[in-house]
Design brief:
Structural class: alpha/beta
Shape: globular
Strand content: 5-15%
Strand order of the largest sheet: 6-3-2-7-8-9
Radius of gyration: 24 Å
């Protein structure tokens, strides 16, 4: 049983293994898609394959779409060579339910995989051919927040961006310049309309995508690489739209255990690989069952009937409310609050921490007690029902295998948006945020975590986070077991309005967080004792 077009012909073996095959012919679908493309996607990793590829698969199975997705990679070319090409672009989707059941389905909706390299004439020519097709309706993205960035922390262009700005549309290297170059080809072919749809878990993702593309083409125009009329085309959202979205589906790294299970069923070569760019990927994708995708319905060249596959199609305001509900109240703040405590209390899997009495109560209080009272209801998704599913179904799922260390990656860049919006909502409503208790505990836990010492006094490794060197310098001198070594070190952090949107001392939280942090320094068991003390308050 090989995951290839030829291998799928042994349908009885796949059926016996409990793996559902496409109800359509993937090879014929690929031929139609290549001839008349409608959908291109940049960033072809795990969440794209199981979620976005799954949406397309549902529509194709239902006879609502007769072409699949063309997959484009701008960063990690090993993904194309090791995961797409050897398996005829097929993906094996494994859904992990909380009771231990798994659903297994082969997705045939991914029809072509390309490396976006202007240095390769054949690949570059093919990409131009796709982008100038009259049939092309949308270009979607899951390239992570870093994929949209043009500048470093000092406000200067990254070196590759500087080169892209100076080289113009003929020889781009970065994702934003590649996209801008393809738009230029489409403009030259008749200024045909197109929708760009960022599906990254980034606030105002469509706005960020548009900003980077527009800045690129405006810079090219100043350097006389492109005419002003092309820039006007890109900035005209009736011609080129940049849809905002909210996306939510927990998709951990591929599990070696899942790979072994598939191989035991007879499927060949299912073990995950780590690429040279440190991408963890496999021929299969494992993920939870719940999934949410809310998209601003702005498609100037038409679109597939995405709503028939469970996608919420709505306006920009509703997308924004849905994203704020998830990111600032009902999901991400709980992830952020608990993952640091997990690391300090010895939990590896996030699901295990959800069964801890103190951490479970912290999750409940961050969401229900402090978040829900100030969340703005997007109407299309009930915040309370969404939170119920997060707390009772999604986060406690032991079969996801999601680690707290993964969730803690880049955490210092996230605490502001995770908690700052709720804090500001209380200040707006009450004039102060002093009644909050769980959110200050979460912030204090993040700061205590940065000492890289667990509740038993043992050192542990912090997750990758570009702000660690700066923060460690700020916390210098603070020692585990010696609360007296803590004095004024937190003040520059907690008073920084650029982090939380407010000075936490001015809104009644700074001193409270300091007291919590000091208590957690007292010695072994102090983190646990501090949680108990303040959760009982």
């Amino acid at each position: 049983m090989r995951l290839t077009y030829e291998g799928l012909k042994n349908s009885d073996a796949w059926k016996k293994a409990g793996i559902e095959l496409p109800s359509y012919n993937p090879e014929e679908l690929a031929a139609r898609t290549k001839k008349n493309p409608t959908w291109v996607h940049f960033g072809i990793g795990n969440i794209f394959r199981i979620f976005i590829g799954g949406i397309a698969d549902k529509l194709i199975r239902a006879g609502l779409m007769d072409r699949g997705i063309i997959c484009v990679e701008t960063f990690d070319y090993d993904v194309v060579d090791k995961i797409y090409a050897p398996f005829d672009n097929l993906a094996l989707a494994v859904t992990l339910h909380g009771d231990g059941r798994t659903d297994k389905r082969v997705l045939g909706s991914l029809c072509e995989a390309l490396k976006a390299r202007s240095s390769n004439a054949a690949e570059w020519s093919r990409l131009k051919e796709i982008f100038t097709a009259d049939s092309l309706q949308l270009v979607s993205f899951t390239i992570t927040e870093k994929g949209y960035a043009l500048r470093n922390a000092d406000g200067k262009y990254f070196p590759h961006v500087e080169a892209d700005m100076n080289n113009g549309p003929d020889n781009p290297a970065g994702a934003m310049a590649i996209v801008a170059a393809m738009l230029y080809e489409r403009w030259k072919a008749g200024a045909k309309p197109l929708a760009f749809v960022s599906m990254d878990n980034v606030s105002h993702n469509g706005e960020k995508l548009r900003g980077s593309v527009v800045e690129t083409v405006e810079t090219w125009q100043k350097k006389n690489f492109v005419p002003a009329e092309f820039v006007e085309y890109v900035k005209d959202e009736s011609k080129v739209s940049f849809c905002w979205t909210m996306i939510d589906k927990i998709t951990p790294r591929p599990s070696e255990e899942v790979g072994k299970t598939l191989e035991d069923l007879g499927v060949e070569d299912m073990q995950p690989v780590i690429t040279s760019r440190k991408t963890y990927i496999a021929p299969f994708v494992n993920a939870e069952a719940p999934e949410y995708l809310v998209i601003e319905d702005s498609f100037p060249n038409g679109r597939p009937p995405l709503e028939k596959a469970g996608v919420y199609m709505t306006d920009r305001h509703t997308v924004n409310l849905s994203e704020r509900m998830k990111v600032t109240t009902c999901l991400n703040p709980i992830h952020t609050a608990l993952c640091t405590y997990d690391c300090m209390l010895g939990y590896t899997l996030f699901a295990d921490g959800m069964h801890d009495p103190e951490l479970s109560k912290l999750a409940h209080n961050v969401g229900y007690v402090e978040g829900i009272p100030v969340v703005e209801d997007p109407k299309i998704i009930s915040p309370t029902k969404f939170l119920d599913e997060v707390i009772n179904v999604r986060f406690p799922n032991p079969y996801l295998g999601d680690t707290s260390a993964r969730i803690a990656v880049d955490i210092s860049q996230m605490v502001g948006i995770r908690f700052g919006e709720t804090i500001k909502a209380y200040v707006s409503r009450d004039g102060t945020a002093e009644k909050l208790n769980a959110i200050p505990l979460a912030i204090a836990g993040w700061l205590r975590y940065l000492l890289a010492v667990d509740d038993e006094g043992k050192k542990f490794e912090l997750s990758p986070d570009p702000m660690i060197p700066e923060l460690e310098k700020q916390l210098q001198g603070i020692e585990f077991g010696k609360p007296e070594t803590f004095s004024e070190q937190l003040k520059p952090i907690l008073s920084n309005k650029n982090i939380f949107g407010v000075n936490l001392y001015e809104v009644g939280l700074g001193n409270k967080i300091e007291n919590m942090f000091r208590d957690m320094l007292k010695g072994k068991g102090a983190v646990r004792a501090t949680l108990k003390k303040f959760l009982a308050a």
